[in-house]
Amino acid sequence: MTIPLPPSGGGAVSPESAPGTPGGATGAPDTTAEDRGVSLWRGAFRRLRRNPTAILGAVIVLAFIAVAVLAPLLTSYEPGAAQDAGEITPSSVPGPSPDHWLGLDSFGSDLWTQLVYGARQSLVYGVISTAIGLVVGAALGALAGGFGAVGGRAGQWVDTAVMRIVDLWLSIPSLLLAVSVAAILTQSAYAVMIAIGAAQVPIFARLLRGSMLAQGRSDYVLAAGALGLRKRRIVMSHVLPNSIGPTIVQATLNLATAIIEVAALSYLGLGTADPAVAEWGRMLVAAQDRFDESPQLAIYPGVAIAITALGFTLFGEALREALDPRSRR
Amino acid sequence: MRLVKRWLVGLSRKVRLATVGLATAAVVLTGCAESERDSSSGDGGGEGGGGTFRFAASAEPVTLDPFFASDGETFRVSRQIFEGLVGVEPGTADPAPTGLATEWESSEDGLTHTFTLREGVTFHDGSDFNAEAVCFNFDRWYNLPESSQVESLAYYYGALFGGFATGDNADNAIYDSCETNGEYEATITLTEPFSGFIAALSLPAFAMQSPTALQEYQDDGAQNPTTTEYATSRPSGTGPFQLEEWNQGTDVTLTAYDDYWGEPSTIDEAVVVPIAEPRGRADALRNDEIDGYDLVGPADISGLEDEGFQVVNRDPFNVLYLGFNQAQAPFDDLRVRQAIAYAIDKEEVVSASLPEGSEVAIEFMPPSVSGWADDVETYDYDPDRARQLLEQAGAAGETIEFNYPTDVSRPYMPSPEDTFNVIRTQLEEVGLEVEPVADRWDPDYLNKIQGSENHGIHLLGWTGDYNDTDNFIGQFFGSEKPEWGFNDPQLFQGLREARGEPSVEDAAPLYEDLNREVMELLPGVPLAHPVPSLAFGPGVGGYEASPVQDEVWNTVTLD
Amino acid sequence: MLRFVLRRLGLLVPVLIGLSVLLFAWVRALPGDPARALLGERATPEAVARVREAYGFDDPLWQQYFRYVGSLLRGDFGSSVRDNRPVVDTFLEKFPATAELAIAALLIAVVVGVPLGYLAARNQGRLLDTAVVSGSLLGVATPVFFLAILLKLVFATWLGWLPSSLRQDVTIDATHVTNFYVLDGILTREWDAAVNAVAHLILPSIALATIPLAIIVRITRASVAEVMNEDFVRTAESKGLSRRVVSRRHVLRNALLPVVTTIGLQAGLLFSGAVLTETVFGLQGIGQYLFEAIGRRDYPVLQGYILFIAIIYSLINLLVDLAYGVIDPRVRVS
Fold first, then answer.
1. Do the beta carbons of residue C272 and residue A176 sit within 8 Å?
2. Which terminus of chain B is less hemmed in, N or C, by CB atoms within 10 Å?
3. What is the pLDDT of residues C241-282, one digit of tens each?
4. What are phi and psi of B253, to 5 degrees?
5. Could you give the ipTM of this predicted complex?
6. What are the chain C neighbours of A10 within 8 Å (beta carbons)?
């Protein structure tokens, strides 16, 4: 589930096992300017502002964050309160009414409240799990890529060893990995975040290593090496900072998959166990049995997940394009 | 949503008409295909009888040798193939001479039981059913190799007959011997009386199997006696259906047994397919992919009925209860337990979270069981009384841990999340704070409730196997268990004594007393007897629902 | 070539050994007790203890591990705790269901995705391109299981056009040779059985295909666009070669490489999606069985299945690497 849209060249996802991919097409910029970082981001922002899909994506993302943050102001009910449990029968759920403008959910809580607080849950889960994946993945990637770029026998060895682990990691289907982690840690919010983060680790690791190796071979590094700068310093002060861009972009894209995956884990019964919790995936599961009578119970959270994921995808894609020098035409 | 649906359905009709032509062409083309099929099998629809009955179960059978099984899906299939000595009165849980024994006589002391056998009965492999076959079966069970005695295989025998000829529990074995008196009479001798003996023999695990087929194809000492040739492709019983093929992972096909002694089957063939999700089974029925299914979700019932499907209810032979863990404060205080009992409006629990037709429970077993007492303390809904009791116990406003399972639907607990929600609201009404603790059923929930002391109040229940009080309160309160967290030697002793009475008649009054005692002690609140339902297509008839799922399909008709 | 294949297969060995240790450790780290899961409500403490003893769950871990490895070397992958059936048997029986579903989905994704992506690239910036790109974005953003539920509701429950569950109609009396039902129908010339199996595959494979489809569309579009800008294509076009010939000879061939890579990467993704799709459509595949095995703490099934999945996954990636050589002569493997 977590495998993201590979960047345009297709090479970033699998620089190791893909000998046929156009070399170095990892989205890593090949400019050599020292202050490239600053101007690159500034330029990217300028390009983003002119891109309608980027604006659409940003609007969705901002709206989602606003709903998540302002949830208590948008409703007068508590999430999961089930205050109207008495009105629910096995075969009917009350629809919209003056008190509940979207109606009730299948446990007797206000459906709008559940949706709004669900956004909060998705944001927290998505951000934390992606952060876990990013931090661990980037650490592994930097380790492999750093040693790989420094070169030498020891460097090669570390690179190979780390990447073997990452490959092994990647050879377990990500949902299976997430499910396994969630099963070990028993049911809790942390388990879900760690599970989803764990499945993202190899993606970030490979991406960062790929761009670091590409950077390591670029002219300015070779030039710096010729000038007598120590390789380790070049890697730490130039290669790593210049390679982090694509990884950050990837994180935006992974937020989308993380949000979908939280829902998927809930759907498989591995998310939070409490069914009254306002979480979109959980709401979908609870609604499934009542699909004929009250399809809105499933459709609202389903559409909410899709729109949010779409927002992050649009924005992330646009960001990547903006950062990609090849699209600067 | 409705409009979209109507439009789509209208469109569907038009397109369907248009596709009829294409379909006909396809049929003509496929007519010339060559295959290894058996040309005699039914064609789906019957002409005044015959046809294939397509039934969806929730899972595949585990094995086709019922002696090594203890799950409902295995028994559903084995009941079509095998019959026991003792049958069940149709529509009840009471033992009756509808099985392979036409009558039986038990001695005063409850130690010897003589069975007169039905004559002219044959096993599917052609051998005769007689007294020797009966004794062969009893001796097979008793002399089971030690490697197969474990509960995951021979659960029911170990639980009800105390032990085997060998092994750890050999001293507790209550079976002594089986003797034949002529061709059609067999006498079973026990070493100590067991009041539920006759009723227990109606369990599908104790069905009679063909000695010749067993000798040839079964190996009780095999590493997996559930996957031997006998248990997967050659089971041989006396029932109205015989195994055609068990296509593992896909379906079980049964065909009518022509030499059946009883009412011959109306349908030619029955196919059982596994569909795990209740929702998936409902959709398959709506789409005419199956003729019927079991374990209907409560949310589907009214919808299916509106659309012209039949929903058939079983008389509930189960109990759903709210258990207290007395090892945890404040549930060690009887007043708190009583307060919670008074705080629960069982009527609302039933109407809001259980299928229509479910009944409120006043004790830990349904009224149809022989030791049921009609005058137990019932703790009728009284929130004021509940607040008062909490006040007295100093537990007003206390936070209690409430455990319930998720992602599970049991016949006695169709939607635990909903049930939990209703009770939670009621408890909060009388001033208790509820801390919900949800766990996945498989395996966390049972682990926690039955295997640890780490729980407060919890939802659980039980479906009875046969008509015997021991199968309910004996199962719950027969010994000290982490689920309940109390030790009451007097109650344990009382249950043991009642079980050891020579007959049901002798045991019943003792059990009635025990039921009164249990409801005084209040280890939990019996909530309801939820109705389990089956659903069938409009053309299915003659399905006789049974509270203990003793449903044999020879009476089913299709049109 | 052969040496390359052998070396790759040789590399698998240490990975598998490592994986077997990891798996063993992981499975035992799962909290929860298979014995209790097996016995359900009927579990008494004594019964649980006896079942644990019978399965050897109480022996020291190292003993259990060596027993496990010993039986692996004898080719014995153990039997499920739940139904006592050998792990290999159930895998061979259920894997075809999942594989059939995944292959069908991949087929849809490639057959629809590559032309769409190509057309979009050739019409960059026009309506078709915009539609294809937004469609693919929506495809990635929709959760598989949500789409599966919707498809089932509309096309099976409401319209009744297609079956909603199982792999074949119950009454179809089909001969199964390989357990790939469509293939079986073709092999035995039971055409109706094959057609029926295809009908049962349509909804689940469409649901499963959306994400790979979206990805393939985008990758094809991007790589075709890139190749079209390459010098050799411009040269070819300026030489006066017709557009059709250029497309066939140069653009498609070169653009296919990243697509092939993606297909290899889809294997894991498809498996994940298959678990969800199988659940919705009640298909008896490895996804559902494996998922239940996690719930039941069915150690032998977990260890065996994941090992098999890893092997299959590696083989797929090997095939993908070999496919490069076929498509692009420059990348001859050595």
1. yes
2. N
3. 676 666 666 677 777 777 777 776 676 678 778 877 888 888
4. -110, 130
5. 0.80
6. 219, 222-223, 257-259, 261-262
